[in-house]
Amino acid sequence: MDVSVTTILTKMSEQLQKARSIQNEQQLREHVAALRVLCDLILEGELQAAHVAASSFEPLVLETKTERMDIGDDANGPSLLDF
Fold first, then answer.
1. Is residue 78 in some structural domain?
2. Fewer CB under 10 Å: which end of the chain, C or N?
C-alpha cells in the first residue's frame, strides 16, 4: 500500500500542531516520536524506490582466472615482494 508524500506531510503537520499545544513532556515525546516515524516513512520510501531502480540493472559478472602465471626461470618466486 503506497501512501503519498503529501498525505504523510499532512499527518506530520497535524502531529506538530498537537506537539506545540501540549505542556506535558510525555505527550510531547509521543508526538515527536510520531513525527520521527512519519519522517522515516518518507525516507524509506525514497530508499526503496532507489533500490528498485538499482535492482532493475543486470549484475556485472567478472570472470576470474585461477591459472598460475608462468614467471620464467630467472624469477625468484611467485611473490611480488621476493627479490
1. no
2. N
Helix pair 25-55, 5-21: axis angle to 10 deg = 160
Q: Is residue 79 part of a domain?
A: no
Number of separate domains in the chain: 1
The domain in which residue 29 lies consists of 5-55
**Residue-wise pLDDT tens digits, 7-33:** 999 999 999 999 999 888 999 999 999
From its phi and psi, is residue 58 left (phi > 0), alpha (psi between -120 and 50) or beta?
Answer: beta
Compute the average pLDDT of residues 48-68: 54
- For residue 44, the model assigns a pLDDT of 85
Cell of 60: 556485472
pTM here is 0.53
